[in-house]
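Teaching assistant's notes for section 4

Start the section by putting this record on the projector. Ask students to predict, before seeing the second block, whether TetR family transcriptional regulator will look compact or extended. Collect guesses on the board.
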Amino acid sequence: MTNTKGGAGKSEKTKNRLVSASRDLFAKKGYSETSIRDILEAAEISKGNLYHHFKGKEFLFLHIMEEDHRVMIETWREMEADLKDAAEKLTGFAELLSRMSINYPLMRASEEFYASAFTSEEVVKRLNKIDIEYDDVMREILEEGNQDGSWSIHHVESKVKILLSVFYGLDVLYKNDTIQQRIELQKEAISVFIHGSINADKLNDS
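Reveal the predicted structure now:
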């Protein structure tokens, strides 16, 4: 009788070794400069093993991004439990995004990956799913703020997109700033955004 459990365990170990070796390569060389050959040599596996687990380099990197995204969301869920209101959560989430950005070893590789021309609709859909989860977190915070009196913002859906764009934009444009400088910029941006949104909503609704 074939030991399917043992075979599955061996396959999972191979996959983990592949992902770990690839992660190191992407961090050192970036996405574009890391070749399939580099990955095979670093992981000490055959091309057949790689394609058994992933459809190619694109899907391998996407898997790593999804793993890291899952860890980030789990980290946020633990953090938010200790924050007393929506205002603290908004600042805390912005700070987490900045810390993730400044400490993330695959930031350059991720930027290259997003800039590349995706060859699969599946990749685009899975990347969109990541973006949607960030939208969901921001929506929860803004709606909670409307309920707990932290602010009174209309048209939450558009504000979700605007505020996330502000946070991402600050991290990209001022990536050479220290984490503390970024956090201070985000706090000021939040203040400007909240007060500006309230005033804009009043004008739009009048």
